[in-house]
Amino acid sequence: MTAPSxxxxxxHTASYGAGxxxxxxxxxxxxxxxxxxxxxxxxxxxxxxxxxxxxxxxWDAFVNPLVGSLSDRSxxxxxxxxxxxxxxxxxxxxxxxxxxxAPRFSSTTVTALYVxxxxxxxxxxxxxxxxxxxxxxxxxxxxxxxxxxxxxVRMVLLTVGILVGGAVAPAIAGKHGSRGSYAxxxxxxxxxxxxxxxxxxxxxxxxxxxPPLTGPRPTLREQYDVVRGxxxxxxxxxxxxxxxxxxxxxxxxxxxxxxxxxxxxxxSALLFVxxxxxxxxxxxxxxxxxxxxxxxxxxxxxxxxxxxxxxxLVLCRSEPELLIYVxxxxxxxxxxxxxxxxxxxxxDLVTADAANDGRAGIFTGVWQGGETIAFAVGPxxxxxxxxxxxxxxxxxxxxxxxxxSALTGLVVAFSVLPAVLTLASIPLLRRYTAAxxxxxxxxxxxx
Length: 447
What we know:
This protein has a single domain, classed as MFS general substrate transporter like domains (Growth Hormone, Chain: A, Up-down Bundle), CATH 1.20.1250. The chain is built from 16 helices and 2 strands. It is 74% helix and 1% strand.
């Protein structure tokens, strides 16, 4: 084990960030395509499909803190966190192939159970990778602005992963919209996932880490008690997860909007390109903004841009297609900041906590658990609105005409729902103000 340093090598920075490509893909592809795969390819009803997505993520919310605590106490000679990256990365890639390869069962209920079981395994293995990987920045460097630099690289490469997941996966799956095309997509995406995860594992050899914790492993209740004592963390946690639920709902709705508003399922890839591409040039600008105005100020501004633009998309059924893409670009400006700032703030909160003492895994485990629940709530709310508005599920080889109420519902769930959840996070974030002094080491303090 080595002590944290203020400057990370380019190799360690790039290798760590490469793992975010896999993160972006794994979060994006199921969020974008899995509900649509269930309702429009294998014919599972919207209500049952919603449960198939929610149950694995609810389970995963309890797995994440457990994995974080285990990684805090790891004594492997290969490093405190890195062995988890190897096991979780390989397992996630394998389970991803199975996720979009559902056999032809005798009933859609059995199909839903299959997807639920495989998705649960995939989410568990992803937690084994992601929680220790997310805990590493708090230990890799002790410099306030160096963490922001590391997170900016991570978020740029996360953008790459989201673009790959949001563009390549729908292009492969939507070419024929069949079981076979979705199965092929699963294999292609799994190969990319494996390459990203193994790069992060291999390239972070020798990075700084804190000594493993000793003594009895805390219970789940004790872990939450530790986290609850960090009031700035709690505010950031709830604010971020409201936003994450909104983003997940919008992600789920993109395929439906492309299919039923833009009349072309493959245009979901265009929606994603216009949403995510601005991140490539906005990440450095948001980082520069934070150096003079503070991370939290930038976070609030980005949140406002995303929320207000999301509200305007409620008119997308009557707008020119070009205007929709312009709105997606504006969403991307806000989205870039909403990805960068919370993850740049998080390591500072963890290391500034006097009770932490090497327990970064506990905080990141709770954080990832909350994010997992949020990513489950968003699609569940979207699916609920589909069901209430009369959406008709069908198999891939069937053609159905959706009622007007369903078309209205899928647009409202794509625009108003994410906007309301995002804007509702602002009061939580405004309870704290940035104290962005690199000398103080404190990021959020009560007003």
